[in-house]
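Re: folding output
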Amino acid sequence: MVEKGAIASFFDTLIGTVMLVLLAAGLIAITLTWRASDLEFLGGGQVRVTESTWWGLEKKVTKLEWSAQESWLEIDQNEVRIPLRNRAMRLEN
């Protein structure tokens, strides 16, 4: 068996460490950008959008309603209806 010198062992350890750091950074980047959305039609012109991030640990629930007079409305936790006509809205697939 041939033994490695001190310099070869240092570079093996350095390359292994760099690869592990890059792998960990990639996994963190993937989990930070992971999102899933559920769209539920509640009836009566209402839609609930649930956005989950960080593997379902954080959830944001938005409830929307269609009104012939006001167009689309957002319903907050206190059942107050806020018109969306003056706000930007992005839908992504």
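--- second protein (sequence, then structure) ---
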Amino acid sequence: MSIAGLVTALLVGVAAGLLGKLIIPGRREAPAWLTVSVGVVAALAGTIVARLAGIDTSTLNLLALIIQVGLAGSSVVLVVATAGLDPSDPR
């Protein structure tokens, strides 16, 4: 993984974490540090998935960016939507 791929994953993860926190209405139980860290980890995982799929991640690649954004966005939405839910609550 190159420096460019690492920096891109970091920026995508932070952006996805903050946007996911702001966009999901009504669910504010997830702290910002959690959504940002989940976004960064998922974007790094997206870089690994893109690399395993044979996509060049040494430069800025649109397909790799789409994979990073998709994985980070869906992970952040999942975390924000389930944050604060009590498993013993029968709602």
